[in-house]
Amino acid sequence: MKVEIEESKLQTAYANACDGVKDFMESLFGKKVFEAAKPTLDDYKTIRTYEDACKALGEPIFEDPNNLPNHIIALMKLETISRALWGRNFQPKPDGEGSKVYWYPWFALWTKKEVEDMNPEQRGALLSAGADYGASAGFGCLDAGLRSSHASAYLGFRLCQETEEKAKYFGQQFIELWAEYLKFNFTVGNRLK
């Protein structure tokens, strides 16, 4: 009998296994198969959990002695993960001139079918909602309104990434933490494996 296992699934199982199981898996498949599975700041895709982010950064795992609200704990974990995803050599800095683009995970709160079933007026309101409030990204929170132009920045810089690919990974891989942080009453779809 031949059993085939995708390498990514094998590495995920290894990353979540206890030490004894890791030893067994290494003896069965060889250590080299799992070297890429160890969290590192050199490859953001090795950061699959909050614990991986802490391990890669060399930081302790947060334990809440004060019973903070769950959305605050989720935000703290997302900030740690974001720093780990930035990697070893990336130093994000605010850009007052606006020439640097950062990416933020963006979530659809409607299914494709729900959007298709909307009447044109509802869909138009949905698609223009962001335009009414300015560009949603940035460092801190800036707003200038009631003038001849309007500029805004609403999202936390600490949760932005330097590439669209990383922001998408950040949103999909850690969707449960994002859901807890944003506190929406929605179901979570599939995440990257």
Task: Give a structural overview.
The longest helix has 17 residues. It contains nine helices and two strands; from the N terminus they run H-H-H-H-H-H-H-E-E-H-H. Helix content is 42%, strand content 3%. It has a domain of 118 residues. The two termini are 26 Å apart. It is mainly α and 193 residues long. It has a two-stranded antiparallel ribbon. About 9% of the residues have low confidence. Strand 1 and strand 2 form a beta hairpin.
Output the keywords:
193 residues; mainly alpha; two-stranded antiparallel ribbon; 42% helix; 3% strand; globular
Structure summary:
The protein has helices at residues 7-16, 19-29, 32-35, 50-57, 70-86, 112-116, 120-128, 164-173, 175-182, and strands at residues 142-144, 151-153.
Taking Cα atoms only, what radius of gyration do you get, to the nearest Å? Answer: 20 Å
Shape, per Cα inertia axes: globular
Measured between the Cα atoms of the first and last residue, the distance is: 26 Å
Please give the share of residues in helix.
Answer: 40-55%
| Classification by helices and strands | mainly alpha
Q: What is the chains' assembly state?
A: single chain
Average residue pLDDT: 77
Query: H/E order of the elements?
Result: HHHHHHHEEHH
The portion of residues forming beta strands comes to under 5%
Read across the widest sheet, the strand sequence of neighbours is: 1-2
Give the strand tally: 2
Major sheet description? 2 strands, antiparallel
Unreliable spans are 128-144
Count every helix, treating DSSP H or I runs of 4 or more residues as helices.
9
